[in-house]
C-alpha cells in the first residue's frame, strides 16, 4: 500500500503544488507595487566635438545623472539595469538611438544616486552621405 513509489509520488506532488502556490504568490504580490521612478540627466559640458576621417561626428560630454529608483525595489527585485540613451532625429534616420551610459543597481541602498561622469560609450553620429 505505502510502497516507495507511492510515497515518492506524494512527496513530488506536494512539492510541485507548494512551488506553484509560491510562484503565484510572488507574481500576484507584484501587482500591489506601483513603482514611480524619477530620473534627470544634465549635460554640463561638451568636452570636445570632432569629425572623423570617415565623416562621422563624435562628441564627448560631461553629465550629471541623478535618479531615485527606490520604488522599484521590492522583496522580489534582484537588481535593476539603468541606461541613458540619446534619441534624436536626422534627415537620414527618423530615429537614432545611442547608449551613453549604463549601470547595474544591485541593492536598494544604491537606488538613489547622483553620478558626475562623461559618456561611458562613444557618442558617434552616422555621417550623412
Ligand atoms: C553635478 O554633480 C556634482 C557632484 O556630483 C555637483 O557638485 C554639481 O553641483 C552638479 N552640477 C549640477 C549643475 O547639478
TrEMBL record:
It is a single-pass type II membrane protein. Its main location: endoplasmic reticulum. It is found in: Endoplasmic reticulum membrane. It holds the Pfam family SPC22. InterPro entries: SPC3. GO terms for cellular component: signal peptidase complex. Keywords: Endoplasmic reticulum, Membrane, Signal, Signal-anchor, Transmembrane, Transmembrane helix. Transmembrane segments: none annotated. GO terms for biological process: protein targeting to ER; signal peptide processing. Residues 1-25 form the signal peptide. Essential component of the signal peptidase complex (SPC) which catalyzes the cleavage of N-terminal signal sequences from nascent proteins as they are translocated into the lumen of the endoplasmic reticulum. Essential for the SPC catalytic activity, possibly by stabilizing and positioning the active center of the complex close to the lumenal surface. Belongs to the SPCS3 family. This is Signal peptidase complex subunit 3. The lineage of its organism: Eukaryota, Viridiplantae, Streptophyta, Embryophyta, Tracheophyta.
